[in-house]
Every structure is written in C-alpha cells, then in structure tokens.
Sequence to fold (110 residues):
Amino acid sequence: MSDVAPPAAASHGRATARLYHPARLVVAVLEVLAAGAAGWMVPQAWSRAWGTVVFHLDDGTELVSRTVAGNWVGLAVALATAAALLLVDAGRQTLLGTRTRRRRRGGPDR
Fold:
C-alpha cells in the first residue's frame, strides 16, 4: 500500500474568494501597457539586426553583402515572446478580476 494520504477536501468558498480581486484588473492594464511597449520595441530591434557591407575592389567591382546581427534578432524574438505572454496573462488576470454571477435556477432564461 501507499503511505500517501488522500487529498483534503477543498473549501471552495474561501479558495474562489481569493481569486476574485478587482486589483487584478489593474495588473491586467499594466501588463497590456508593458506588452505594448515590448511590441513597440520589436520592429526597432529587428531593423537594427540587418546591415549592408559594401566592398570596392581595385578593378571597380562593387560587392554588396547583407549582414545579420544575431543579438538584435534574439532581442526582437525575446521581446515578441514576452509581449505575447504578457497579453495572455493580462487576459487571465481580467477573467479572474471580473467575478461572474451565478444564474438562478428557474429564471427567465429557462
């Protein structure tokens, strides 16, 4: 047999009461603002990643090369990922910050 005790019965009233706080809406707004700032920085970091190098040879030939700076590409990808995660969490905070009301049985929509 196992020595693991059965899980204790959860008190749903207290557990759900802790989830619904209007302050979560403030956190959601701050996360949306942070995601907007990160999203605004993504194109700037991406545009800095690309460069052009031009070589002029003695015979008049011009060689043009495109370069990619990996650190700027990595920063752009990290910022885009952070913005996406912040938006997902802002949605979660909004859902937890707004308390849904239970429908009464036998109401008008029955």
The mean pLDDT is 85. The chain has one domain: 21-97. The longest strand covers residues 50-56.
